[in-house]
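Morning F.,

Quick status update on the modeling queue. The single chain you submitted on Monday has been processed. Sequence for confirmation:
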Amino acid sequence: MPFSGFQGHRLFYQLSGEQGPPLVFIHGMWGDHSQFAPQVDRFAARHRVMVPDLLGHGQSDKPEVELSMEGFADGVAALCRHAGLKRVVAVGHSLGGAVAVSLAARHPELVRGAACLDTTLLAPAKAKKQALPAMLARLEGEPPLEALAAWLEPMFLPSDAPEIKQRVLAAVAEAPLHVSTGLIRAVVAWDGQAALERAACPLLYVGGAAPRTPMADLKHLKPAALYGQVVGSGHFMTMIVPEQVNAMLERFMELLPWLEAA
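Structure tokens below.
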């Protein structure tokens, strides 16, 4: 359903489940709410579940405006308040995990816990100063889909279902160029360490085959964070191994009362 009350832009979201502790699932770059279908199917029977399309994605508006983690987080907060959701557990995949942490940092009264699924929370300086600017330059000099497909290739394992890869690339192909470049600039601008330091809620991190945030780096900042890793999946774990992701999320929900009291 659409919501037009965020800075004049239309945000789409899906709401499932009649009652229970609320969960909000936040997709990554070029994704949309449908990438969490296995999670909605699993959790909607016992939870109120929201899955939004971030600004620039899916069925939400795609204006030529500056994109940022903070802006995405504020948009999700506005949707939660619109839907009457309080004390949510925010679950984000990839960029969505950065949005979840930003949501916890900026709207602490709203967030009970945050779960990051293969998110780059602490980007190396080399990536921000070299790799990501180089990708922006490539987008200006060659077909965007070719450049982005090459960038995404290492995120897949040979064993990952080919239809998942095709689905991801189809979404990338549909994205306007200004959205793709805006997303990369948003990643460069985001200060993950500062957001993590401000986010006081319990945190779960789940890595893929090659976790994008090493456990030692995260534990240095958040010693109490829970850390897990799926087996046999590249980056797009919510669709490739949903049963593993769902089991870890369920355990995180069970542990929240103890984590909050610690």
